[in-house]
Amino acid sequence: MKDNLVTIHMCDDDPDDQLLVSDALLEARLGNPIDFTQNGLELLQYLRREGEFSHLEGQPLPGLILLDLNMPVMDGREVLKELKNDEVFKSIPIVVLTTSKAEEDIAKSYNMGVNSFIIKPISFDSLVEMVKSMTNYWFHIVSLPNSSQ
Amino acid sequence: MKNNYSSMAVLIVEDDEDDYILLKELLEDAIGDLGKIDWADDISSATELIQKNDHQMYFIDNRLGAELGLDLIVLIKQKYETAPPIIMLSGVDDRRTDLKAMNNGADDYLIKSQLSPPLLERTIRYIFKSKSFEAKLARLAHFDSLTGLYNRSIFNELLNKTIEQSKRSAQRFALVTIDLDNFKYINDNYGHPAGDLLLTKVARRLKHTVRGADIAARLGGDEFSLVLKDVGENSDFVKLINNIMAVFDKPVQVLGNEIHTTISAGIAIFPNDASVSSELIEHSDRAMYQAKNNGKNTYSFYNQELHQQAKFRHSIELKLSCAIEQDKLLLYYQPILDMATQQIISYEALLRWKDEQGDFYNTEEVIAIAEQGPLILELGRWVFDTACQQLMRWQQQQQFLGKIAINVSAKQFNNPVFTEHVVKTLAQYPQLTNKIIFEITERTLLESQPHIIKLLESLVALGCEFSLDDFGTGHASISYLRAFPMQIIKIDKSIVQQVLGKNKEMALCKAIIAMGKALDIQVVAEGIEDKAVAKQLKVLGCPQAQGYYYSRPKAADQL
């Protein structure tokens, strides 16, 4: 039952998308907790347990990050660069979840070390399916480095 | 690599412990470590575990002492819409039991002596495959795959169920029909994927606006239906529908575009408007078309009386918001006197508002409407600012150096904004220190939560006083005095005006005055309209008085 405890983190400025993904997790009967930030800068603070996230100090890092590309303040591309250059954070798998279908974005993201690039599904049912296969893949099929280092 | 079953909870019902251990080991050989394996050795403990826990797979031995495992299958089937896999076990190969188990809903029938890890693994794999297909079919039958809300066919069923329930419990509910106003335009201009995504997101917002027991469905196209259950007052319907309209204040991000969308909504109420589902649907549809005809982005009740009420409320809200902005409201002032010296201790500021014809609105009604939304915060701030300015003008002109009593709604303390404004004002104008009294009525209850008590105490620390208005009419009088820092109580006029007889009211007045003395709380008798009452209260030792006998509320320049 240990894998139930892995937290999923979603960095996305659209509150509707946040609702959709957390509802899809519930619908898929996945007990994983999910938490949110709204832009790249917040994501960095969240991971570093700084500022308004300092109360999370000592808690395990998320096991998976869902990252939007287009966000205000610091967008997904910028924060991606920071994360993949960080000794601690670079091992957290990152799934880019975005509406962008631009070839350039896709290629760039993979070059920057993103683990998957997924276009946000339109329908709720396909979102539930996506969440199911994504969590099955990352939490059951592949082996990940221990995050509580 | 972890297996797919590593978080699965399994229940084994088996009266022979050796057989249980054997099966457990076979299972672990077949599919690896499981999340949890529960064991029940008779019908009653099995029944308890089935009711209590959510297992993802069951193994049931048919011979359980004198009883049969077949009955448990029925129990599990009743518990779930799509039941988890159930595998019957038997010591002997008996075709009749096999068929019975299948008819009761078992997914397979295995003979104990033939069990092996490969057989178990294969059986489980095949069962889960067909189960997920079964679950998908069940989902398709009940849910709209685009939005994940209920679909039309199950919605009609749920509506009928709700009608039955509401009849039994004598409760009212609202059926709301919703149609997006500009959906065709969005489809035509942004494309169908954008339109579909808009519907998906709108559906989520609606689902999160209704309460857990309520029902949200997409009936097709851009048409949604909601069932809002267990609604008491008519004004509650208005509040709920306002919440739903507010869902669309924020634009929806759709494939890189920010789309503003609005809805037209029609509401029919069970049982007032209709008591069968077809009629209820017809009425809410008709109300929705009325909303469209009224210019869209609005709602309409099938019930005309409710409709008028809602419209009246809405127009008052609009006008009041304008009146505050344009400073068209008035404050009248009524003195509160010291009974012994007849000196004025304070003036109570009372809200007055004239309509276009110069007639006064009913202040109570206006405040009650404002209190149902955020408007009370604006109104409360205007009253506070205006009253403070008047007091400072009197101070400058040496006309009056006493205190000002300002009516506040409990709602103004639900968030810290008002308190922060008062603190700031007091810091800016030290001449207001120890001069401000806040009058609170019990009409809207202050919540005795620590953070609200803290807000009141922080104002008391700055020299403000709190006065409990209409004392003796609400439900919470004494508990208010205990929970909140009150320095003044005002005996309600319904008690004061009856004080001449040798009756309960007289005794109550006496008791409240004595209580005030004992608690070191000032007591004001309000609503004194004639000399005899004034005299009697003086005899009873009431320290302060207010009422038409002394002065009506007047505009500042009439005082």
Explained architecture:
The complex is a heterodimer of chains A (149) and B (559). Chain A is built from five helices and five strands, in the order βαβαβαβαβα. Chain A has one domain: Rossmann fold (3-Layer(aba) Sandwich), CATH 3.40.50. Chain A is α/β, with parallel strands linked by helices and 149 residues long. Chain A has a five-stranded parallel beta sheet. In chain A, strand 4, helix 4 and strand 5 form a beta-alpha-beta unit. The two termini of chain A are 20 Å apart. Chain B is an alpha/beta fold and 559 residues long. Chain B folds into three domains: 133 residues, Rossmann fold (3-Layer(aba) Sandwich); 151 residues, Alpha-Beta Plaits (2-Layer Sandwich); 241 residues, EAL domain (TIM Barrel). Chain B is built from 19 helices and 23 strands. In chain B, the strands form five sheets. In chain B, strands 15-16-17-18-19-20-21-22 form an eight-stranded mixed β-barrel, surrounded by four helices. A five-stranded parallel beta sheet of chain B has the order 2-1-3-6-7, covered by helices on one side. Chain B is elongated. The relative contact order of chain B is 0.05. Classes of the chains: A alpha/beta (149), B alpha/beta (559). At the A-B interface, helix 1 and helix 5 of A face helix 8 of B.
